[in-house]
Specification:
It contains twelve helices and nine strands. It is of the alpha/beta class and 283 residues long. It has two domains: 192 residues, HAD superfamily/HAD-like (Rossmann fold, 3-Layer(aba) Sandwich); 79 residues. Strands 5-4-3-2-6-7-8 form a seven-stranded parallel beta sheet, with helices on both faces. Helix 7 links the parallel strand 3 and strand 4. Helix 1 crosses helix 10. The longest helix has 20 residues.
């Protein structure tokens, strides 16, 4: 029997194409001490304030979230936004420098995406990151031109961007709603319809056995589990848990999804992204 033939590749972004846990934790926690010094606040208090901001946005990385912390509003809330940003410029630049240093594609990702794109198979990014953050990362990594479309959450406030296009001129961006979060397969069905490819010719790649693999198998698509994306320093993970946007309701929802998909198995387990080329036929 030959390899499964794939006519549409859908891939998660965070911890599938790059190590989001490590790069974001690194950048965030290098920024915090600088922000504490500028705002004259202790670290634990500022982390509590960040967690409140993140829960309000239901997002752990709203752009300029520091401006919305109670300490920042106390010190600079009376100023125009541009001046608020300028007052905390050192903290923002610290984050940017650390992110630039730590944000890297996993081995083989660029080459594999290029080969799939060259085969004529469209590649779609599907992420629960907001559009502005997803577009930034695809651009910063130099791979936005390899994607036909991006499906992401719209974000709020300053995180809103034009839902038609961002990043590469060829990249079409579509926003889905918060009630369509993974492992709801409705977005995958939407992608299947947009590209007129039957689910049995689709492949979805992701690091979550529930959110990515579970959703793909529920709609009848192939699923590849990016096992390598689950390997990171647990210290970085605990740092993110400290400021997570997840509420008790989010935890209950995740547990229910895990129970629903507990018997789901991927069609392929990847030690690196490039394993796709030996496990599936694209074209």
């Amino acid at each position: 029997m030959g390899l499964p033939r794939i006519e549409l590749l859908v891939t998660d972004l965070d911890n599938t194409l790059y190590d989001w846990v490590t790069f974001f934790s690194t950048a965030f926690y290098e920024m915090v001490p600088v922000a504490c010094r500028l705002l004259d606040v202790d670290e634990e208090s500022l982390l509590d304030e960040f967690r409140d901001v993140h829960r309000r946005h239901h997002d752990s990385e709203p752009p300029y979230g520091l401006l919305e912390t109670r300490s920042a509003l106390r010190c600079h809330g009376h100023l125009p936004v541009a001046e608020q940003k300028a007052a905390l410029d050192e903290a923002f630049h610290t984050f940017d420098r650390a992110r630039k240093r730590a944000l890297r594609l996993y081995p083989g990702v660029r080459e594999t995406l290029a080969r799939v794109a060259a085969s004529g198979v469209p590649i779609v990014a599907y992420t629960e990151a907001t559009m502005v953050n997803a577009c930034f990362r695809l651009d910063a990594l130099g791979i936005s031109g390899l994607f036909a479309a991006l499906y992401a959450l719209p974000g709020s406030g300053d995180a809103c961007v034009d839902p038609d296009r961002c990043g590469s001129p060829s990249l079409v961006v579509r926003a889905f709603s918060a009630n369509q979060r993974k492992p709801d397969p409705s977005v995958l069905r939407w992608i299947s319809s947009d590209f007129a490819v039957a689910p049995e010719r689709m492949l979805h790649v992701g690091d979550s056995l529930v959110g990515d693999v579970g959703a793909a198998k529920e709609m009848g698509a192939y699923a590849a589990w990016a096992r390598y994306g689950t390997v990171y320093d647990p210290v970085h993970w605990q740092c993110l848990v400290r400021i997570t946007h997840w509420t008790d309701e989010d935890v209950r929802r995740a547990e229910a999804a895990r129970h629903h998909h507990q018997g789901t198995r991927p069609d392929a387990v990847l030690s690196e992204f490039g394993d796709l080329l030996s496990m599936f036929a694209f074209g």
